[in-house]
# Entry
Amino acid sequence: MRIWWGALVIALGLSLVANVVLVIGALRGHHDSMGYLEMDAPLVQRMITDYAKEVGAPTNDLMRSRFPISIYLDDRKCFTLQLKKGYIGFQPVYCFRRSDDALVYKRVRQM
# Structure
């Protein structure tokens, strides 16, 4: 009977630790994968660099609270900097023409 209780206490303890780790990860807003295709990394970097200049913030500070997401339309590749959980602010949108990667739309400030 004591062995059963010991096993139950250990199982509950491990479950508690695992749940705490999951909750902390969710609160920190960890993202394990990129929200864009690897071939579009240069466009994402262009967006990040330009947006950092627009708002007057270092790119490292800016990316602490954001992560890039892509939206692919018929003739455009659009990207935004999604805010992580727990942050508030504006999310810019940049769209590039698929044929030549020219910037065709840019929204960096909320209207």
